[in-house]
């Protein structure tokens, strides 16, 4: 119980490596199996399982950072732009652009 109340536990979520890991966690989730399979097929005959594991951890973190920077952030930014696009003016039923022909409104 005392450990849960300590200041170290409360500061842990603000520690930069933990913040970075939280930022790339989705990319890490998406890429870890791919990296493991590639490493297993490429080096499985020459390396022991523990050596593959040691090699996969930093490689997976690096690939996750690349995927986060080049895929996840741009896709998130695009999604945000598409969902918060401002409404165009002049497209309502009473505007000239909303009419079928000059002087006629669209039927309800």
Q: How does this model look, in words?
A:
The structure is a single chain. This protein has 108 residues and is mainly α. It is built from 5 helices and no strands. Helix 4 packs antiparallel against helix 5. The longest helix is centred in the middle third of the chain and has 35 residues, at 49-83. It is flat and about 65 Å long. The mean pLDDT is 83.
Write down the overall mean pLDDT: 83
Number of strands: 0
Inertia-based shape: flat
Report Rg: 26 Å
Main beta-sheet strand count, sense and barrel state: none
State the helical fraction: 55-70%
Question: Could you say which structural class the secondary elements and strand pairing correspond to?
Answer: mainly alpha
Number of helical segments? 5
Percent in strands: under 5%
First-residue to last-residue Cα separation: 66 Å
H/E element order = HHHHH
Low-pLDDT segments: none
Question: Which properties best describe this structure?
Answer:
single chain, 108 residues, mainly alpha, 0% strand, flat
How does the SSE layout of this entry go?
Elements (H helix, E strand, L loop, with lengths): L1 H4 L1 H5 L4 H8 L1 H19 L5 H35 L25
